[in-house]
Design a protein that fits this description.
Elements (H helix, E strand, L loop, with lengths): L35 E7 L12 H15 L2 E8 L10 H11 L5 E3 L10 H12 L5 E3 L4 E3 L2 H34 L11 E4 L8 E4 L3 H15 L3 H11 L11 H8 L7 E3 L7 E3 L8 H13 L16 E3 L6 E9 L5 E9 L12 E2 H14 L7 H18 L14 H11 L2 H9 L5 E4 L2 E4 L6
């Protein structure tokens, strides 16, 4: 008997594939089309970089390189900012974001240290190269791609720039300390002194200002011998035309700092608060006994305790005459029946004009004027509608979750203008200020009346 043979199963024949036909290049190198460059030019504001190429020079040089090499520059971005701190340059941060989103695939810059002088920004740039977002960085003499050796060289160059920054800070502090030990305070001299450049000296010498110096001494004498107040000195300096080196009026706070500055006695502390005192090589404007006498008069002056009383409508108004802020004070009046009634008055604080004659306004009159202003303002357009809706929603959550009220019970309709008036009359100080802030413009006080400043156009 013949035996049947089963058909043999054919195995499909696999054709060998040559390795030369397989693309082993990384994805970023397989991108088609030219590299889209962003030309980034940066100029630091530090003294040591003032001799570096300016931004215009950098752009001109790199544009010539791009034309010579046939590079496609999509956009030119410039920035004047130090690269010492990580994430502190807004233009550079936006550039990194645009690279990540694919707007650019290459960066053209004058040198590697234009991109980064800190470890944080350098790490972000290298990460973009590792992820394939940044294909190439081109400088005037080098090219960096996603190659281990080229990335290593990029990190060395930027790390060297960071090392230079760190060493420069140490050397600068050492030089300033040495200068202080030589009797030269390493900063701008106090008001009343000037700088003189002499051919035989490498550094500028500090000398008394022939115009302002004698007036500074007179100010100390007025305080020490006549017990003049700071405001009296301020008025006197305005009369004699005493100004800063830039021609600006001396403020009251500057006068008090001047009267407390031991630099005028020929000695100074550096750094301030360190306890290290040095004897200066310049001529003192104020003898030590005169300086101490003026200090005793200042110490004996009564100190006002600011911030002990909060008023609802301060910091929200300006004087309509001089532009100073509006302050408030509380006064008490004893009535015939023995009771004491309190009144709050708002007036100009005389910060910009000590002789401002604008009258004050009582708080109840101020409130009535504010309620009148509320009637003339479209509150729907200044954010009050949203504020009211938030309050209604908060109340409904409270009544539902705490009082067990049914959610089907609706709140009665509240008019926005009525709600605003309620806040002005019964709200907290923070709520009143928030409401007035919603008006988007300052309130002025002039001739005992208040009014809105220039209306903001919607």
């Amino acid at each position: 008997m013949a035996t049947a043979t089963l058909p043999q199963k054919r195995t499909p024949k696999v054709q060998p594939v040559a390795l030369s036909h397989i693309d082993l290049t990384p994805p970023e190198e397989r991108l088609t089309g030219p590299i889209k460059y962003c030309l980034y030019a940066r100029k630091s504001s530090e003294d040591d970089e003032r001799q570096a190429l300016s931004i215009d020079s950098q752009i001109k040089s790199m544009l010539e390189l791009a034309k010579r090499e046939g590079l496609e520059i999509v956009e030119v971005r410039r920035e004047s900012h130090s690269a010492k701190a990580s994430g502190a340059r807004p233009v550079f941060k936006q550039l990194l974001t645009d690279i990540r989103e694919g707007m650019f695939t290459g960066v053209l810059t004058w040198a590697a240290d234009r991109l980064s002088r800190n470890a944080g920004d350098l790490g972000t740039v290298v990460d973009l190269m590792d992820q394939g977002h940044l294909i190439e960085i081109r400088t005037h003499g080098q090219k960096f791609t996603n190659n281990p050796n080229e990335k290593f060289l990029l990190m060395i160059l930027c790390s060297q720039a960071k090392l230079e920054n760190d060493n420069r800070g140490i050397n600068t502090k050492r030089g300033m300390r040495t200068r202080a030990e030589m009797g030269h305070r390493p900063c701008i001299p106090a008001l009343g002194y000037a700088l003189e450049k002499r051919p035989e000296d490498k550094k500028n010498r500090v000398i008394p200002d022939p115009i302002r110096g004698p007036l500074v001494r007179q100010a100390f004498e007025k305080v020490a011998y006549q017990h003049a107040s700071g405001r009296n000195l301020h008025r006197w300096m305005q009369e004699v035309g005493f100004t800063t080196k830039l021609g600006r009026t001396v403020t009251l706070s500057m006068i008090y700092r001047m009267l407390r500055n031991p630099f005028y006695t020929g000695k100074f502390e550096y750094p301030v608060g360190s306890g290290n005192w040095y004897q200066g090589t310049y001529e003192p404007l104020v003898p030590q006994p005169l300086f101490e006498a003026a200090g005793k008069v200042l110490d004996m002056a009564p100190k006002k305790q600011w911030g002990t009383k909060e008023f609802a409508f301060t910091r929200m108004m300006l004087c309509g005459n001089c532009g100073s802020g509006i302050t408030a004070e509380e006064k008490h009046k004893r009535m015939k029946d023995g009771s004491i009634r309190k009144y709050v008055y708002y007036r100009c604080c005389h910060a910009k004009d000590h002789d401002c004659k604008q009258p004050s306004i009582r708080e109840d009159e101020l409130l009535e004027s504010l309620l009148t202003i509320i009637d003339t303002v479209d509150l729907d357009k200044i954010g009050m509608k949203k504020k009211l809706q938030e309050e209604v929603s908060r109340y409904e959550k409270f009544t539902t979750g705490v009082l067990g009220r049914e959610t089907s019970e609706k709140m009665p309709r509240v008019e926005i203008r009525a709600y605003a008036k309620y806040l002005l009359q019964n709200g907290k100080i923070e709520e009143k200020r928030e409401l007035l802030h919603c008006l988007r413009n300052k309130i002025t006080l002039a001739d005992g009346k208040i009014a809105l400043a220039k209306q903001v156009k919607e």
